[in-house]
Amino acid sequence: MRHIAYGNPVLSRNGTVKMYKCICDDCGDDAFCETSSSCYTAAYKDHPDQDEQYHRSCFSADSSQMSCKIQNLASRIMVSIKCCQGHLCNQDLRPTIPREEPPPDTTWQELWPIVVAIVVPIIIVGMLISAIYLICRHMHKRRMEMLLANERRLLEDDILHGVQQVGENTLKELLDHSCTSGSGSGLPQLVQQTVAKRVMLVDCIGKGRYGEVWKGRFQDEDVAVKIFSSRDEASWRRETDIYNMCLLRHENILGYYGSDMTSWHSCTQLWLITHYHRLGSLYDYLQYNTLDYEQMLTLVHSAAAGLSHLHTEIITNRGKPAIAHRDIKSKNILVRSNFSCCIGDLGLAVIHKQESNLLDLGHNQKVGTKRYMAPELLAETLNPSFFDSFKCVDVYAFGLVIWEVARRTGEYPEEYKPPFYDSVPSDPSFEDMRKTVVVDQTRPVAPNRWFSDLVLNQVSKVARECWSQNPKARLPILRVKKTLSQLLKSVQLLTQQDKALKIENLEKSC
């Protein structure tokens, strides 16, 4: 801050100009200057923290400028000048540089407009994002409810059709019957903890990672006994719990009798007793049998029907939750005596109920078969909290099963080979499959003859849409079932027309 005061010339009584002597710090040896105006002392600082320094001199006679210049006064900071009139009056004159007051403390009243300007937009944006999320979630829920309602309607139509065939009148009567008749209906026909004493094991018909499968006899009826070791109790208990659900019974789901624990040579054995199918698994059947179009489509359509029943939730008082298999492969699909299929081995299944929207993954930490694993499992990108992710995994594996069956079909069938037989070793590792399926995006190759065959070309298209790299692009199993059903009906119609034509030609020739 600069404070400069200029004086005016002083006149004596007789009208002459009165002269004053002033102390002058830069006037050489005299150390004085004379003026008819005023003396002054200037206080200045070069830095705010520096002590005050003083410079004394006088104004010129015309009072327009200082007679003794302060060097670089314009560059000084915090200058204060005080003037006086009188002989050597500035000798002890000491002006004071006014102190700069610190800025006043900012109060809340001054800050709240800034806070409001920042916080309010954030709150508004947060509310908009929340609203958009809730709207999208509501729309997704409605869409899922519509899809489930449509699937439920189709399923109930099938059930009601079955009711009419057996002479029943209502769905309730069918539910009551299915929950009490056993044989895979949901409640075991044989009393648990006593059944093992009444079953006689006949022959070992297979071995798997969970143990052995035996052919047995119970009251002059053949049964299959799946024997788990005690270390696989989680799988046994999981499969038992799932088979004990109401409305699980379906002609394309392996029929269930009961479960039991027993001891053999001081070792605990866990038994799961099911229907026995003499033709074995689809894997075994394809080793030694070739198929025509109708047989192929009957096998894959019936397997798709069983998987569709698992995936569908039935919402009634005694309903069935949606179930994802998680280990679909030709060894877990059995061939019935009428040459249709049924799905077994539910030890890795995932259960989902729409009402609670909770996933029941069970306590079994084992995973499915590596050769049939979907890309999202191999890349470890599957969302385990979203049930549809597991259904997409099943559809991918089912596409590989379709490929296995189609290779054994037609006039010139190929030798049976498992999926990726030409890309990975016979017992592939997780890394082998990940490189082939995820990195290279390899899929089983369709033989050249399929492209010129109308039926096999259509089946190949279904398989490709099942094993798409993107899970969202895969067909739902209900759509696969309907497509295969239409193909089967078309083939059956052509077969009937061909038979009729042959009969007509034979009659004409006679």
TrEMBL record:
Keywords per UniProt: ATP-binding, Glycoprotein, Kinase, Magnesium, Membrane, Metal-binding, Nucleotide-binding, Receptor, Serine/threonine-protein kinase, Signal, Transferase, Transmembrane, Transmembrane helix
UniProt-recorded Gene Ontology molecular function terms: ATP binding; metal ion binding; transmembrane receptor protein serine/threonine kinase activity
GO terms classed as biological process: cellular response to growth factor stimulus
EC numbers: 2.7.11.30
Names of required cofactors: Mn(2+); Mg(2+)
Binding site for ATP: K226
Keyword Glycoprotein: yes
InterPro entries in the record: Activin_recp, GS_dom, Kinase-like_dom_sf, Prot_kinase_dom, Protein_kinase_ATP_BS, Ser-Thr/Tyr_kinase_cat_dom, Ser/Thr_kinase_AS, Snake_toxin-like_sf
Domain Protein kinase: 199-488
Any Gene Ontology CC annotation: receptor complex
Domain GS: 169-198
Compartment(s) of residence: Membrane
Domain of life: Eukaryota
Major place of residence: membrane
Reactions mediated catalytically: L-seryl-[receptor-protein] + ATP = O-phospho-L-seryl-[receptor-protein] + ADP + H(+); L-threonyl-[receptor-protein] + ATP = O-phospho-L-threonyl-[receptor-protein] + ADP + H(+)
Cross-referenced Pfam families: Activin_recp, PK_Tyr_Ser-Thr, TGF_beta_GS
Electron transport in keyword set: no
Its membrane topology: Single-pass type I membrane protein
Membrane spanning stretches: 111-136
Protein family according to the UniProt entry: Belongs to the protein kinase superfamily. TKL Ser/Thr protein kinase family. TGFB receptor subfamily.
Alphabetical list of PANTHER family matching this protein: RECEPTOR PROTEIN SERINE_THREONINE KINASE (PTHR23255:SF72), TRANSFORMING GROWTH FACTOR-BETA RECEPTOR TYPE I AND II (PTHR23255)
Name recorded for this polypeptide: receptor protein serine/threonine kinase
Lineage: Eukaryota, Metazoa, Spiralia, Lophotrochozoa, Mollusca
